[in-house]
Amino acid sequence: MPPIAQYVFNGVVTGGILALPAVAFSLLWRLLRFPNFAVSTYLTVGAYVALMLNQGARAPIELAWLGALAVTGAVALAVDRIAFRPMRSRRPFSLAIASIGVAFVLENLVRFVWGNDFRSFDVPVTRATSIAGIRVGRDQLLILGVAVAMMALAQAFLLRTRLGIAMRATADNPLLAAVKGVPTERVIAVATLGGGALAGGAGVFLGLDASIDPLMGGGLIISVFAAAILGGVGSAPGALAGALIVGIVEEVGTLVVPPTYKTAIGFTIILAVLLVRPTGLAGARA
Amino acid sequence: MIAYLTAIATLVGVRALLTLGLNVQWGLAGLVNLGAVAFFAVGAYTSALLTVGGTPLIFAWPAGIGLAAAAAAGLAMVALRLREDYLAIVTLGFGEVLRLFLLNEAWLTRGANGVTAIPRPLHAHFAARYDVFYLVLVLAAVAFVYAALERVRRSPFGRVLRAIREDETVAAVAGKPVFRFKVQAFALGAAVAGLAGILFAHYLAYIEPNMFLPQESLFVWLALILGGSGNNRGALLGSAVLLGLLEGSRFAKDVIPFLTGVRLAAAQQMLVGVVLVVLMIRRPEGLLPEKPGSD
Amino acid sequence: MTTMTRRELLKASGAAGLVIGAPAVLSAQSKEPIPIGTLCPLTGAGGSYGPDMQRAVVAVVERINKAGGIHGRPIQLFHEDDQTNAEAGVRAARKLIDVNRVVAIVSTWASAVTLAVRPLCVEAKVFLIGVSGADTVTQGEHKGYVARTQPNTNLQGRMYAKFAVSKKEWKRVAYLALQTPYARSFGDAFTGILKTAGVTITDDLIYEDKKPSYRSEVTRILATNPDMIMLEGYTPDSVVMAKDIYKAGYKGAILAPSFAINAKFIEGVGAEVAEGIWNMDRAPLYDSPAYKEFSAAVPRTDQSPYAPQAWDQMSIVALALAAGRGEVSGTVIKDQLRAVANPPGTVVYSYAEGAKLLGEGKKVNYEGASGSCDFDAIGDILSAPFSVQQVRRGKSELVQIINP
Q: The CATH number of the domain where C346 resides is what?
């Protein structure tokens, strides 16, 4: 039996990757008032964009990652313009269903072009080293580091910049914010762009850590949802904490339950949180 | 050509049944169920495993329906107190967890290999034109369920459900045990879905977990919304139109030669997604909108 | 997904137009073609092997038809892709049986497909012969309509174990298998023999298909400190698994089936990860005249043992039909199979030789490209040699042959 620490470490890495789309999902939910199922598919889009650049254009993975951030952000913006903007005043449920449709289109677009096979980036496969009895991969540390940096940037943006503050204001009380002259559509556009970029970047990390296939993002939707709800919808630090907890519980859970049931763990977390404390850790109203 | 159309019609019938079941939950009671495929699968697997193990159809079929209803009731008791978009994700998760269960608990479900040689009802009697017999069976089931559900809709039970759908608080104030009604509606819808699953399994004589993916739930939703969410005629129309759309796009491959296999499947699924989005934006009430106050 | 199922099913039922009423047993007097189906993995996990298998069957049929066919009737082949997927296989088999009215389906590959298709064939009295290894393929009620030219997984497990035991440095072995119909029976045979020989089985884990990462599984297996991992999967999952094993820092040996460790695998993981991986599979009968004829006739993209088997399967089915009294059906194949493939009889290495002798009223014993093709009562072949290979500098090289 490997030490629990190994599972915890694996969970922290997974949680770190999960945190990016979870924050995007959570903030967008608060801002636009509906759960956007397309967010997890943005991961897939980001991974394939990077794949195209890395394998097709022979770009180094770092550049491919940047490309993924930009393109996925743009895709998210386009989706918002086309699908969600015409529905701003509708009930959340309709928007949620529309977002499922969008997720479907994106996943199958990728499948149409690249097929169902698993693919990998053109990066050397490296072996893990043992640190204090735990196997630690160089890639894993890199991913964790960059993910943390991205989180820090996002948090700084929300707290320090005018647009970030405007975003939080709009999320809290859109009518009041609009009355006070906050440019709502601009705020939404920036949030969407940023959220898409976060998710796209996470997709590249996931592709590095595991493999790339059309279902890679969609498979995480339950975990992303769990992280956001656990953290309290609308709170970025909450989503981060939620993602780490979900990641760790899912990994450690494989000691008790077969690895194939990981999604079931996320599902159970969702149920438990919704029944016991629906406002989540951060306690804000969704 | 006839064999082809018979087969399409049979599958449209099965899908229509599933859509009718979803309509009980959504159209009648306003409950979001994104995991409809789960109850479809429960019905299919229960009957398949029992009949393959020797249980006569006459016991296996009610067992399948009953288990689907029971599973739904169980889920409902836990989840129905949740808000709409939360309920959506919970039911979606449930559908996915059930599929994982089917895949992994191979000792019970035969896992990835699936259940083969599912006995076909009355096969010996109708061997020559079995496909026609089965089509008649499915159509009879659809007709029966449709009539029954229309009765339910007009019954006191149905009216209370619609009242709950419109405004839960008012219904509660009027003294109705809102929660109990919702659970019953949910279970009833699941029972119908279970019946659809049973007919599906015995038609194909082979089922495996990957036939019950979460996207199947989505297709049922699309059929319902397309046809006109909230009413049974819409459910039937939506199923026919959806399958027609999907079948028709298959012939695209004759015109556009590189569209085969995975590409074709992806293109069809993309089309479904696009239609869903367009519907939600332009015409969320569907083709046959429910007339307000209709009885 | 279900809608694809339905659509394909519909397409399958209607595709060839109306063929209603032609019974599977065709009259001996007519010059009507004899319909036979191939159901190979042209896409999916087995996609590297299907095309060669299909080509082998086509080559045999071309020869037979050029020489005048069977009882003067040409064979007409109908090809289907099972996509290495049981559900797709069932739909395709439905079409072959119901629409094309085939009397036999040859060269199936994946055990899951063969198992799913088996009941359809038995019900319709269509003969089924393939290369699937799962023990359950030939067990149970099949009334003689099923046979295979690949050793069953029990035999395979014993052969792999024989090799593993011969490697004295492998004292701690872990078994890691993809969830398939044969994973358990292979594993039990394999680990059972190792245990008897004093090897410690450190872990036994069956994993799920189509996962992008197997980190949890790998963590668990490596924690038990094996010297060697017996990895029993298909190419796509083996690629992911091998990379995860490598990334986790494992430096021990890996033994896997050659059908997983093919050129596509090596390309997928890279030469460094693939270096040193041992792989085994049934060895064809390189010296036999049948193999030589097969080699010359079939252009191949893969050196797997399946194409030679497909060649043999088609030849044996044709010989069995030729041995019948002019009636052509799956039942005739079933009845005559062992008469033409097993001793006693004059040894023949091709359909042409065998058909000539059968025409003279003599008994034949077909020996093929893949082996001596002698079937027992339930349709299994009696024994087979195995080849052991190792990946060296990006290519799998033959190291030794293990005899039963």
A: 3.40.50.2300
Domain extent at residue A90: 4-276
Q: pLDDT tens for residues C21-32?
A: 334 344 444 578
Question: What number is the ipTM of this complex?
Answer: 0.84
What DSSP letter does each residue of A126-180 carry, written as one string? Answer: ---EEETTEEE-HHHHHHHHHHHHHHHHHHHHHHHSHHHHHHHHHHH-HHHHHHT
Domain presence at residue A184: yes
Cα distances from C16 to residues C3, C95, C128, in angstroms, run 21, 9, 22
Per-residue pLDDT of C156-214, as tens digits, reads 999 999 999 999 999 999 999 998 878 888 999 999 999 999 999 999 998 887 778 88
DSSP letter string over A96-128? Answer: HHHHHHHHHHHHHHHHHHH-S--B--S------
Q: Which of residues 216-235 of A touch B (CB under 8 A)?
A: 221-222, 225, 229
Q: Give yes or no for a contact between C167 and C153, defined as CB atoms under 8 angstroms apart.
A: no
What is the C-alpha separation between C53 and C79, in angstroms, rounded?
Answer: 11
Question: How many domains does chain C fold into?
Answer: 2
Residue B118 has what DSSP assignment? P
Determine how many CB atoms are found less than 10 A away from the CB of residue B174: 11
CA distances from A261 to A141, A250, A258 (A): 26, 9, 6
Rg (CA), chain C: 21
Per-residue pLDDT tens for C42-74? 887 888 899 899 999 999 999 999 988 998 899
C1–B213: do the CB atoms touch at under 8 Å?
Answer: yes
For C341-392, write each residue's pLDDT tens digit. 998 889 999 999 999 999 898 999 999 998 889 999 999 998 888 999 999 9
Quick one: which of B8, B204, B1 has its CA closest to C14?
Answer: B1
> Strands A129-131, A134-136: parallel, antiparallel or unpaired by DSSP?
antiparallel
Of A87, A116, A270, the CB nearest to B280: A87
What's the CA gap between B189 and B36, in Å, rounded? 9
Residues C249 and C391 in one domain: yes
Task: Compute how many other C-beta atoms are within 10 angstroms of the C-beta atom of residue B152.
Answer: 17
Tokens of C294: 């097969």
Nearest CB neighbour to B85, from listed A93, A105, A263: A93
Say if A125 is an interface residue toward chain C (CB within 8 Å): yes
Contacts of A115 in chain B (CB under 8 A): 262
pLDDT at residue C9 is higher than 60: no
Strand extents, DSSP E, C233-284: 253-257, 278-282
Answer yes or no: are the C-beta atoms of A100 and A37 closer than 8 Å: yes
Smallest CA–CA distance from A5 into chain C, residue: C219
- Interface membership of C272 toward A (CB under 8 Å): yes
CA–CA distance, A58 with C200 (Å, rounded to integer): 46
CA distances from A238 to A20, A40, A149, A199, A241 (A): 12, 18, 17, 17, 5
Where do the structural domains in chain B lie, given as residue ranges? 2-213
Which amino acid is it at B155?
S
Domain total of chain A? 1
SS3 assignment, position B82: coil
Cα distance from N-terminal residue to C-terminal residue, chain B: 41
Which residues partner with C178 through β-bridges? Answer: C207
More confident position, C236 or C5:
C236
Instruction: Return the number of other C-beta atoms located less than 10 Å from residue A163's C-beta.
Output: 15
Instruction: Tell me how far apart the alpha carbons of residues B205 and C298 are, in angstroms, rounded to a whole number.
Output: 37
Strands (DSSP E) contained in chain A are 129-131, 134-136
CATH number, position A48: 1.10.3470
Residues 6 or more apart whose Cβ sits within 8 Å of residue C230: C160, C164, C173, C174, C175, C176, C177, C190, C255, C256
Question: Which uninterrupted H or E stretch holds B128?
Answer: none
What are the tokens at C127? 């003969």
